[in-house]
């Protein structure tokens, strides 16, 4: 399993772009899952970096989380409205695991409350997904070129420049 902490150490360029875009949109990302009929679903989500892991947590019993319960594969794309992508964007691919650890959930809820004022303290988390990142990529636009940075476990980041 590649946690967020491990990913950020192995792919610092992609991680920096992801975090920059994640913060710029108020933590909003687009989550790609697979519906029960096999078609893709795109849903908004606000993932959080928590205790070295990428937590994909939200309202219980939503279709996106039911998708992940059935098929843990995902794609997470930073939200962007800039068609020129001047601030870059990033995508993460992998699978999720539903961590059932009440103490972890309560620490998460406390940090969420401390950071945002949103209060989930004392609530049960039936679905508390953490990511195992298997691929990461990012794009950055330069003077007349596009840099695509790609990472896979066991490999260094590599940059493909497109003119």
TrEMBL record:
Please give the coiled-coil regions recorded for this protein: none
- Asked whether the keyword Oxidoreductase is assigned, the reply is yes
Residue ranges of every copy of the Pyridoxamine 5'-phosphate oxidase N-terminal domain listed in the record: 27-112
User: Which Gene3D superfamilies does the UniProt entry name for this protein?
Assistant: Electron Transport, Fmn-binding Protein, Chain A
The record's section on Pfam families has: PNPOx_N
Supply the InterPro entries for this chain. F420H2_bilvrd_red/Heme_oxyg (IPR052019), Pyridox_Oxase_N (IPR011576), Split_barrel_FMN-bd (IPR012349)
Record keywords, A-Z: Oxidoreductase
Q: Please name the PANTHER family in this protein's record.
A: HEME OXYGENASE HI_0854-RELATED
What name is this protein filed under? Pyridoxamine 5'-phosphate oxidase family protein
